[in-house]
Amino acid sequence: MPFWIELITGLLSFVIAAICGKMLIPFLHKLKFGQPIKVEFGPKWHEGKQGTPTMGGIMFIISAVISVAVGYVVYRMFAAPKPADTAAMNDSAMRLLSCVLFCMLFGLMGFIDDFTKVVRKDNDGLTPWQKIAIQVIISAGWLFAMRFFGDTNTTIDLAFIEFDLGWFYYPLIIVVILYLTNAVNLTDGIDGLCGTVTMVNMLLYTVIFHMLSNNEMSVFTIAVAGGCLGFLVWNLHPAKCFMGDTGSMFLGAAVTCAGLVTRQHLVLVLLALVYIIEALSVVIQVTYFKYTKKKYGEGRRIFKMTPIHHHFEMSGFSEYKIVITFSLFAVLAGVGGMLLVHPLV
Question: Least CB-packed of 85, 93, 273, 275 within 10 Å?
Answer without folding.
Answer: 85
